[in-house]
Amino acid sequence: MKIDRVFDLYDELEQQRIMLSFKGGLSPDLITALLGVVERKLDRMEPDARMRKRVFNVAMECLQNLYLHNQGHHQQNGTDPQGVLMIAQGDEGWMVLTGNFMSAAEVNDLRSHLDRVNGCGPDQLRELYKTTLNNGHYGPAGGGGLGLIDIARKSGRKLEYGFVPLDGSNAFFSLNVNVTS
Fold first, then answer.
1. Which of 7, 12, 78, 81 is in Cβ range 3.0-4.6 Å of 70 for a Cys bridge?
2. Cα–Cα distance between 31 and 151 in angstroms, integer?
3. 175 in Cβ contact with 99 (< 8 Å)
4. At 123, is the secondary structure helix, strand, or coil?
5. Closest listed residue to residue 20, CA positions, set 29, 4, 31
6. Domains of the chain, start order
7. What is the pLDDT along the chain (181 residues), one digit of tens a residue?
């Protein structure tokens, strides 16, 4: 990258109001550090304490999902666990965007779960969360889908998502969570 390109990148991040952008492998210590940065920046940038808490909680849940699901993908495929997290301030609130590699075989199940979550209103999400918590069926990463339900509950919005097929056995999953008042 040319040295003068750094300013162009900085300017673009400022224009897009990107509070945090991260790409790489995650560990519990790094997640703690990233959450510390998010908390400090939100304290300076967001005057509404309730909104700060909601954005922080969504970011925390998204980072946990990235970590847990990347670990499984890494162990199955021998690839370096990689994830992307970006938090940006929008006109109506905040956006928490994540991305990670996953097995193509798991795409349909995740899509079905996301569509189920997106089909619920606030009361239905609360019931789905309780039912999922009480049914005792947990996936390889742990929570059995509780994280996405919790993210939808805290954001108060539908979850935007996409899948990019990479080859016959891998895909890239992206999630955009809008947190508005």
1. 81
2. 17
3. yes
4. helix
5. 31
6. 3-180 (3.30.565.10)
7. 677 788 888 888 888 899 999 999 888 999 999 999 999 999 999 999 999 999 999 999 999 999 887 755 554 555 555 789 999 999 999 999 999 989 999 999 999 999 999 999 999 999 999 998 887 655 555 556 899 999 999 999 999 999 999 988 999 999 999 999 8
Sequence-ordered alpha helix ranges (H) in the chain: 3-15, 28-45, 49-77, 107-118, 122-135, 146-155
Tell me the H-state helices in 78-102: none
User: pTM, whole model, 2 decimals?
Assistant: 0.87
On whether the CB atoms of residues 37 and 18 are closer than 8 A, the answer is no
**Nearby residues of 53 by Cβ (< 8 Å), 6 or more positions away:** none
C-beta separation of 159 from 177 below 8 A: yes
Beta bridge partners of 87: 20, 96
